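Reviewers of the previous submission asked for a worked example of the structure-prediction workflow described in the proposal, so we include one complete record here. The input consisted solely of the amino acid sequence. No template or homolog information was supplied to the procedure at any stage.
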Amino acid sequence: MNYIASTLALSALLAAPASAAFKLTEVSPRVFSPREGNTAISRAWFRFSNPEGAEVTIRIFDINGRLVRRNLEYSGADMFWNGRDQGGALVKGGVYIYQIESGDKVLTGTVVVAI
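From that input alone, the workflow returned the following structure tokens.
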């Protein structure tokens, strides 16, 4: 690669849009039932774009702010919560708060566990 091509390639990398950073694209379903056999509705899926391969941490809290689960499981580029606490026990039905951290971004939202 010659000097001009190298300089242009570097300029393109430096001018890359902010969308190249971590971005949460979907949390689905917002209401899920861990006892269902169908994984499409028995888990809350956290789908994101992570082109830089930054570390992603997701924590789940109950409505009182108590940490219920961290270090969710990966399935390809997505992570999911199966409605179980850190010890592996099924949680009670109700509203749960998720907190997603990647780099300097912190995103929060809610999911509902229907038992």
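The two ends are 60 Å apart (CA to CA). We consider this example representative of the routine output the project will generate in years two and three.
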